[in-house]
Amino acid sequence: MSRQIADDHPSLDLESSLNFVLETLEEGAIKRNHDFHLLVLGTIDKDNNPQTRNVVLRKVDISQSLIRFHTDKRSNKISDIQSNNSVSLLGYDKSNKLQIRIMAKAQIENSQEILSDIWSNMYPMSRECYRVNDAPGKIVSSKDDVFFEEEGADKMNGFENFTIVNCHIQSIETLFLHSSGHLRAKYQNENDQFIGKWLVP
Questions:
Q1: How far is the CA of 106 from the CAs of 12, 65, 145, in angstroms?
Q2: How many other β-carbons are positioned within 10 Å of the β-carbon of residue 25?
């Protein structure tokens, strides 16, 4: 016999559900072991083929309907976004049995001041991946042909390859899994206000 959903579960109300999802996303940007710390980013490449990969959620700004991740300027995801800035983001929070699907418009950050400020506050290990000599995804004859520059006295080696991507949320779709019946909703962004509707799971 299926269990009843608790009366105070946030998924039973559109507004409570949205607030819970946004708060959980914010946790994902802060806590490295949170399920939402890694999201699946979907883009369309130059050949019109879908491409997916994991990205680390770095910032959530609900007031701006924005989520952010860091990446290498030379990566394929950047060229994908430059040709088509419509992206999707997918996450699953196992502890809450919650799937989220986000549609967004991606914008590559151009402000050197913003990039420099973020770079200076990153862990050395996080900066290291941007010091690889060749572009991510380039074919090499051997694993031993992958070289990294030294950090440098000013700790700026690799900065020229670093950028951030701001994803402006267009819609959020939520799916709470329940043994007594799943609950699914979609929230459309209208002037930075999310308007929710129930969907058939």
A1: 31, 12, 33
A2: 23
Radius of gyration of the chain (CA): 19
Q: DSSP character for 99?
A: E
The Cα 165–Cα 72 span in angstroms is 10
- Residues 65, 169 contacting (CB under 8 angstroms): yes
The count of other CB atoms within 10 Å of the CB of residue 37 is 17
Alpha helix positions (H), 31-123: 76-83, 112-120
> Which residues face 39 on adjacent strands?
55
28 touches 68 (CB < 8 A): no
Residue by residue, pLDDT tens for the chain (201 residues) are 356 677 678 778 899 999 999 999 999 999 999 999 999 999 999 999 999 999 999 999 999 999 999 999 999 999 999 999 999 999 999 999 999 999 999 999 999 999 999 999 999 999 999 999 988 888 988 888 888 888 888 889 999 999 999 999 999 999 999 888 899 999 999 988 999 999 999
